[in-house]
Amino acid sequence: MTEPRFRHFLAVDWSGAVGERQKGIAVALCASGDEAPCLLRPPSHDVWSRQDVLDFLLHRLPAETLVGLDLGLSLPFRDGGAFFPGWSDSPADAPALWALVDAICADDPHLSASSFVDHEAASAYFRRHGGREGALFHLPGADHRRGRMRVTEEAQARAGCRPYSNFNLVGAAQVGKSSLTGMRLLHRLRGRLPVWPVDPVPDTGSVVTEIYTSLAALEAGRSVGRAKMTDYCEVNAALQRLGSKRADGTGRIDDHSADAIVTAAWLRVAAHRPHLWRPAELDRELAITEGWTFGAA
Fold first, then answer.
1. What percentage of the chain exceeds 70 in pLDDT?
2. Which of 27, 33, 39, 53 has the smallest set of CB atoms within 10 Å of its CB?
3. Does any domain span residue 107?
4. What's the rounded Cα separation, in Å, for the pair 28 and 70?
């Protein structure tokens, strides 16, 4: 993509928690210009479900929207030459991984992914609760103290973030559950919305990307240790750094909503930087297998 042409910018703070509706899901939208992003609500409830988000993306997304999903769109591949080295059913690329997760979790309600992490073969690659670390959570001979990392997660670390392995399902900062549930959503978007960089950016239409809200917070003047914002004063200071007008609201705000608001404003700025669409390490093989986090240059 040489000339950014998006007119709307949507940030989704995602959740992998069990249950239908998740207070951890927040959705914020802004248009070109400098108006502050606004928080969106699902049509018939105060709290989003994963299915609500899917329905919005498929049926109510404004034209020419750059969508940022705060989840890992794939798993490490390059380090071991496969997502699941040694497993004969290991998929060849990210879309096949999405399809596999969705198939194994077909009976899991609300786009959850419990069946995948408990799967007899797949579970060997994950660190789960109760001290259950799979025998293949670490590659033989590799030093992955926090688990296997994608190339883009190493780029995140160089930018000052603290990424975690998508194979880690333990701890408040883990993103593995969000990523696996997100893969079920991505499978349902296949052929209907392109997902960069698995798919090239088309000349027209909306595009889905992976985001990491800490990258937005860093550019907005926050430190990694203070990336989370829980007050509108903090949110509005971050928006000002991003060239945005103030958001409506005063007092306390949950960190998920704050992440969505600030990241939507950041997407509006970052989308116009050609180098972010062409990371130096991103080749076609990596794009189709591991994907990339937009903004991790």
1. 97
2. 33
3. no
4. 12
- Give dist(CA 172, CA 127) in Å, integer: 14
Q: How far apart are CA 96 and CA 195, in angstroms?
A: 14
Distance of CA 193 to the CA centre of its chain: 15
User: Could you report the per-residue pLDDT of 213-253, keeping only the tens digit for each?
Assistant: 999 999 999 988 888 999 999 999 999 999 999 999 999 99
Whether 286 is covered by a domain: the verdict is no
The chain-wide mean pLDDT, for the chain, equals 94
pLDDT, one tens digit per residue, over 159-187 is 999 999 999 998 777 889 999 999 999 99
* Alpha-carbon span 172 to 158, nearest angstrom: 22
Instruction: Give the number of other CB atoms < 10 A from CB of residue 200.
Output: 12
Q: How many distinct helices (H) and strands (E) make up the chain?
A: 9, 7
Supply the range of the domain harboring residue 194: 8-73+187-277
Per-position DSSP letters for 44-67, written without gaps between them: T-SS-BHHHHHHHHHHTPPSSEEE
pTM over 0.85: yes
Give the burial class of 242: count Cβ atoms within 10 A of its Cβ; 0-12 exposed, 13-18 middle, 19 or more buried.
buried
Residue 267 lies in a domain: yes
Task: Quote the number of domains for the chain.
Answer: 1
- The rounded distance, in Å, linking the Cα atoms of 267 and 227 is 16
**Do the domain assignments include residue 24?**
yes
| CA 210 centroid distance within chain | 4
- The gap between the terminal CA atoms of the chain, to the nearest Å, is 15
pLDDT score for 103:
98
